[in-house]
Write a structure and sequence with these properties.
The structure holds two protein chains of two kinds.
Chain A (H helix, E strand, L loop, with lengths): L3 E5 L3 H13 L3 E5 L2 H11 L3 E5 L7 H10 L7 E6 L4 H9 L4 E4 L4 H12 L1
Parallel strand pairs in A: 1-2, 1-3, 3-4, 4-5
Chain B lengths: L3 H27 L8 H7 L6 H14 L5 H12 L1 H13 L5 H8 L4 H34 L19 H17 L10 H29 L3 H10 L1 H4 L8 H20 L1 H9 L6 H17 L2 H11 L10 H8 L3 H41 L12 H26 L5 H12 L3 H9 L5 H26 L6 H5 L20 H21 L6 H11 L16 H12 L1 H14 L12 H15 L1 H11 L7 H76 L5 H33 L3 E8 H19 L2 E7 L4 E5 H18 L6 E8 L3 E8 L36 H11 L3 E6 L5 E8 L4 H11 L5 E3 L2
Helix pairs in contact in B: 1-9, 1-17, 2-9, 2-14, 3-15, 3-17, 4-12, 4-14, 6-7, 7-8, 7-17, 7-18, 7-19, 7-21, 8-17, 8-18, 9-15, 9-16, 9-17, 10-15, 12-13, 12-19, 13-17, 15-16, 16-17, 17-18, 18-25, 21-23, 25-26, 25-27, 27-28, 29-30, 30-33, 31-32, 32-33
The chains are: A alpha/beta, B mainly alpha.
């Protein structure tokens, strides 16, 4: 059975690349381009893992992460924060809000896939 | 009916009545329910200003000079109405320092100088004795006239009557006895006499009532109203002359002089000072007195002119002295009761004045003249005597008797040469000599003891030479040769034309010379040296007001064991112990044995004693028991020196700390600003990093994907490569814009300024974007652009702005139905360009935000494809450019109905481009760096 992955990012090209990579690994994919859509899809699509961008319109990745962690129905979902802001404080904040791991952009595709697999194992 | 014994009986009954009032008021005061603590009583007691001089003399003066009697009352009226603050300050200072008399006031002010107190006392006694003589003369004359009723006979001249048949002698003796009873029954620590004040207030009512009764009788009893009197007076030329105000220029001068004189007299006469300042219970009473006392003066003068005119009409040529009209008019109309009432009124005016004046003078003589002298005579052994309170009372009693004796003597010797008013004025001129030292002492800290002594001495000598001695000479008591020919036959020294000054009446003449010399000497000598420690301290107490009264005057100490016996000697044992016990209670102690030997106790004892024997004597007595370090000149200099050094150092420190505070404030501000700038820079770098990493992320991801999977199909591979290329382009554009903005912001941008055709720039910018508009099938409308609009600007930069705005609009309009309109127009001053789109519009909250770096409008990116393209730097850059040319760039929009970006540019180049022109003109080429 294949895992479900929700991609959340507002950069079309990054979404394209992530979509391609995940499909190639055999995951089932859904895409959201802002925070609100992400929360909606998380409830409908029931993903096993979310790739979550931080800088997004409407709701930031931090807010989405916080809402998901506050929802018992979403207790098992893994969250990988992806951000172009590499400051220490942001990494700490993301982890404190309940992200499983934090990857800065630009990322190595190999590393990303390895992280996803280890989280879903 | 008016036999001599009736008049004498009435007189004694009246005096007995007064005494009863005084006794009752004293009794009330002893039981703590003061009768006189009342502003009305205070105002009435001030009526002691009106003596027989007012009661009989005003009419006399009115008969001689019309309303010339008035200035004597205008002076006090002015003082109370306009200068109440001086009186208020005097009362406050006197209370704080327990001042007992005007001599004490002056002595205390200039360093508690016994010499000065003595001099003031001498001047006051000598100056006021003619005034007392005047009261004796008035009472004895009124008695003589009344007792010859129904005949109206003017009394014989004083000198013509054998001594023991002279009623004035008996009047003097009776008044002396009465005053002794009144004023020296016991010694009060504050030297206040409640009973006396109550009696004086009653006397003020009696004399006012008597005078008003005569006035009403004359106006409506004899005549048919005031109009009738004036009409009759106008018909008689001799009388009519009195209706004119003044008939010579000198007369106006006299008016001024009299107002001036009486103003000071109502403040500085010993009895006025006694009643207004020493006997004042509460300084607040003054606020009522400032109008009640002038009102009293007004009422008592109301009928003066009608009575004078009526008297002149009635006694034409009958040889009746106008000073007696008040009495003789009722007599001439056979109104015995009214005549007796008038006599009592005159008696009350005289007794009031004599009692208060002699009590005040006797206090001064005792405290400032006799006691200091006696205490210095070791032969008497006074310094060692146990109880001196009896002696003090004894001295005062004798002083009263002597003063009245002197008054009588003056009356016998000089009294006949002058009318009542002229005698009074001699006294007024004498006390006017106190004005510089008293007023100066209240408001000028620079006055010294020497200055005060010099001023008073010079003024007093000149007063005696120009006014007192001539009054003796005119009475035949002195040879009068020096009046006509000057002292030693020197013309310039003629006493009434001193140094050739003529054309003034004798009072004005005396006042000009004496006050001029007085004031000059006071200021001149005072300025010779700075006040010493003691003078400076007293100056602070007086000029600075009562607030400074807490300053300690003593550097040494003494215990109850020393101070209590000292106080007992002057106050009596019981009174002194009482006062010490009260002081102990005030300090929260249970008995006076617990009182510590400190400066506060010494100060208390000094003040207590000052109430009885005056400040100067008190200081000398207390000094005799206080173990004080001798205050040598070196020490004084050291104290002063140290004090001034400390002051200078303090000022320096204050200055330094102020500078430090300012510097700290500036530093803190700069620091805050730096921190803010640092935060902004940090945010900017973080944002730039984010913007750069985003395209890099795509580039790396796609590159890695292509690199690791060579078997990707061609279509996919082409798509990925296109993305890589476009992201690379985006990355380069971003870097360029960041550099561009950095250049604009730092002012290192290069500008080429020339006349630019705006329409042409718009068209060119539109042309460059034609393909993009066509791709999205968006309409671009340039029809609203006027031709021939020219501004001074940088063409390329303007182009940059236009392209930014157009591509911005294109980004947000919908595909196919999108429409962008460009408008351009202008006034004589500026050119205005607008770019309107039919996109989603911008929230009002974002109208300014979108011009911030990297801040793109929110709420416009619902769909994946609608993610705003671009860097978020286009608008900030455009705004920088427009503002460089002194224009403005803003947006007008409501969400849902598109947005219009507008910018204006002034036609005449602004400051920035102006410099560019100058640079160009100077041959430095069109490019320059702007700051």
């Amino acid at each position: 059975m294949s895992h479900r992955i929700l991609i959340v990012d507002d950069e079309p090209n990054i979404v394209i690349s992530l979509e391609y990579l995940m499909k190639k690994e055999g995951f089932e994919i859904a895409v959201a381009t802002d925070g609100e859509a992400a929360l909606k899809l998380a409830a409908e699509f029931r993903p096993d893992l979310i790739l979550l961008d931080v800088m997004m319109p409407k709701k930031s990745g931090f807010e989405v992460c916080e809402s998901l962690r506050a929802d018992p129905a979403q207790a098992g979902v893994k969250i990988i924060m992806l951000t172009a802001k590499g400051r220490e404080t942001e990494v700490t904040k993301g982890l404190a809000l309940g992200a499983n791991t934090y990857i800065t952009k630009p990322f190595s595709t190999k590393d990303l896939i390895a992280q996803i697999k280890s989280l879903l194992a | 009916m008016l036999q001599g014994w009736v008049i004498v009986l009435a007189s004694f009954l009246y005096l007995g009545f007064l005494f009863a009032i005084a006794w009752y008021a004293d009794h009330r005061a002893d039981t703590g329910r003061s009768l006189i603590s009342n502003p009305v009583v205070y105002a009435l007691s001030l009526g002691v200003y009106c003596t027989t001089w007012t009661f009989y003399g005003s009419v006399g003066r009115a008969a001689a000079s019309g309303i010339g009697f008035l200035p004597i009352y205008l002076g006090p009226t002015l003082l109370f109405a306009l200068a109440g603050f001086i009186l208020h300050k005097m009362i406050r200072v006197a209370k704080a320092n327990r001042i007992t008399s005007i001599a004490d006031f002056v002595a205390s002010r200039y360093g508690k100088s016994q010499l000065l107190g003595g001099l003031v006392t001498v001047i006051a006694v000598v100056g006021v004795i003619p005034y007392i003589a005047l009261q004796l003369k008035a009472v004895s004359n009124s008695f003589a006239i009344l007792s010859s009723y129904p005949e109206i006979i003017m009394p014989a001249t004083a000198g013509a009557v054998p001594l023991f048949q002279d009623s004035a002698l008996y009047v003097a003796m009776i008044l002396a006895a009465f005053t002794i009873l009144f004023g020296t029954r016991h010694l009060d620590a504050t030297e206040r006499h409640e009973g006396m004040v109550a009696a004086i207030a009653v006397e003020s009512i009696v004399k006012l009532a008597a005078f008003l009764a005569v006035g009403i009788f004359v106006v409506w009893g004899i005549h048919e109203g005031v109009g009738d009197i004036f009409a009759q007076a106008a018909a008689v030329p001799e009388v009519a002359r009195r209706l004119a105000t003044a008939d010579s220029p000198a007369a106006y001068g006299t008016w001024g002089t009299l107002i001036f004189l009486s103003l000071f007299a109502s403040l500085l006469l010993p009895r006025q000072f006694q009643i207004a300042v020493v006997e004042n219970v509460d300084a607040k009473h003054l606020s009522r007195a400032v109008w009640m006392f002038p009102l009293y003066l007004f009422l008592i003068n109301l009928f003066v002119l009608p009575v004078a005119l009526a008297g002149m009409l009635h006694f034409q040529g009958a040889g009746v002295d106008a000073d007696t009209f008040v009495l003789t008019l009722p007599m001439a109309h056979q109104h015995e009761a009214l005549a007796l009432f008038v006599y009592i009124g005159g008696l009350s005016a005289a007794t009031g004045m004599v009692i208060v004046e002699t009590i005040a003078l006797s206090t001064m003589v005792c405290n400032d003249l006799v006691m200091p002298a006696l205490l210095r005579l070791p032969i008497l052994g006074l310094a060692a005597r146990e109880d001196l309170s009896g002696l003090l009372l004894e001295i005062r009693r004798w002083a009263i008797a002597v003063i009245l004796g002197l008054g009588y003597l003056y009356f016998r010797v000089a009294g006949e040469a002058y009318a009542l008013v002229s005698i009074g004025l001699i006294s007024f001129a004498a006390v006017a000599q106190f004005a510089p030292v008293v007023i100066g002492g209240l408001f000028w800290k620079g006055g010294t003891r020497d200055g005060a002594l010099a001023g008073l001495a010079v003024g007093f000598v000149l007063w005696a030479y120009t006014l007192l001695l001539p009054s003796f000479a005119k009475s035949g008591w002195l040879p009068d040769g020096f009046i006509a020919h000057g002292l030693f036959g020197i013309e310039l020294l003629r006493p009434q034309h001193l140094f050739g000054l003529t054309g003034l009446d004798e009072i004005t003449h005396c006042l000009v010379w004496s006050l001029l010399a007085n004031l000059g000497a006071y200021i001149g000598v005072s300025l010779q040296r700075t006040p010493n420690v003691r003078e400076a301290r007293q100056a602070t107490l007086f000029v600075g007001g009562a607030e400074a009264a807490g300053m300690s005057a003593w550097r040494g100490s003494a215990g109850v064991a020393d101070l209590l016996p000292l106080a007992s000697r002057f106050l009596g044992r019981e009174r002194a112990e009482d006062a010490f016990f009260r002081h102990a209670r005030e300090r929260g102690l249970h008995s006076m044995e617990e009182l510590p030997s400190d400066t506060r106790l010494v100060n208390f004892a000094e003040t207590l004693l000052a109430g009885a024997i005056g400040s100067a004597s008190s200081r000398a007595m207390v000094a005799s028991v206080v173990t004080e370090e001798p205050l040598g000149i070196d020490e004084v200099m050291n104290i002063l020196d140290e004090a001034s050094q400390v002051r200078a150092y303090t000022r320096e420190l204050e200055q330094k700390s102020l500078e430090l505070r300012i510097a700290t404030g500036e530093l803190r501000e700069a620091n805050a600003r730096l921190r803010e700038l640092d935060r902004m820079k940090d945010d900017f770098i973080s944002t730039v990093t984010h913007e750069l990493r985003t395209p890099l992320t795509s580039i790396r991801a796609f590159s890695e994907m292509l690199h690791e999977d060579p078997k990707i199909d061609l279509a996919q591979r082409t798509r990925f490569l296109a993305i890589i290329v476009s992201e690379t382009v985006r990355l380069s554009r971003l870097i360029n814009q960041i550099l561009d903005l950095a250049k604009l912001e730092s002012g290192r941008a290069e500008w080429t300024v020339a006349a630019v055709d705006v329409g042409e720039v718009i068209r060119e910018a539109a042309d460059s974007l034609t393909v993009l508009f066509a791709e999205k099938r968006v309409m671009l409308d340039l029809d609203q652009c006027a031709a021939g609009l020219s501004v001074m600007a940088d063409r390329d930069r303007l182009m940059q702005v236009m392209v930014n705005l157009l591509s911005n609009a294109l980004k947000f309009v919908p595909e196919d139905s999108g429409c962008v309109k460009v408008g351009a127009g202008g006034t004589t001053d500026e050119v205005r360009v607008s770019v309107t789109d039919n996109g989603p519009g911008i929230h009002a909250a974002d109208h300014e935000v979108i011009f911030d770096k990297f801040r793109q409008g929110s709420g416009t990116t619902d769909v994946l494809t609608d993610k705003p393209q671009g860097t978020g730097l286009g608008l900030p850059i455009s705004r920088q450019i427009v503002e460089y040319f002194n224009g403005r760039l803003w947006v007008e929009s409501t969400p849902g109905s598109g947005a219009t970006f507008v910018f204006t540019l002034p036609r005449q180049a602004g400051d920035n481009s102006q410099t560019a022109h100058e640079d160009a003109a100077a041959g430095q080429g069109p490019k320059h760096n702007d700051n």
